[in-house]
Amino acid sequence: MQTQVEQLYNPLLLYVKNRINNKEDAEDITQEVFxxxxxxxxxxxxxxxxxxxxxxxxTITDYYRKNKVHMVDVENRPIFEELEEESAAKELSNCITxxxxxxxxxxxxxxxxxxxxxxxxxxxxxxxxMNYVTVRSKIQRGRKKLxxxxxxxCTIIQGGKGSILEYISKEDWDEGNCSSCx
Length: 182
Hints:
mainly alpha, two-stranded antiparallel sheet, Rna Polymerase Sigma Factor, Chain: A, elongated
């Protein structure tokens, strides 16, 4: 059984890390899974791997319940939401219209609908007579292009779930703001 545990540790740790945003918590949970495994009556278990992943799934669920962490689907959310007036994200959101306007024609209309007008992706596909999967892909690539544009003017410091905590303008930009947005 010791060799099976050794073979399971790294894949299990990766499994947990993909579900927990904090590396240290993921390592703790992985250790807790093996502790629970050692305390369980696993002598009657036919498939150790399945049993370990079941324990892991339940331990992750307990982690989220204990910490009252709520999962939010962010795949279809716009880059910037309504935020408090003085937040860094609100300040940077002033630049998004300028940057969307700077995108190539291929991305400009899709990103305008998605990020500025908050039109759902399926509706964008219908409006532009495009395949939904193509629209999703172009939005993801467009978001990457926008992120790259923001990275050129400032360093963005993000929180655990990708929220913008602060930004630091790069030296060659005017008075702490992206000059192209002013």
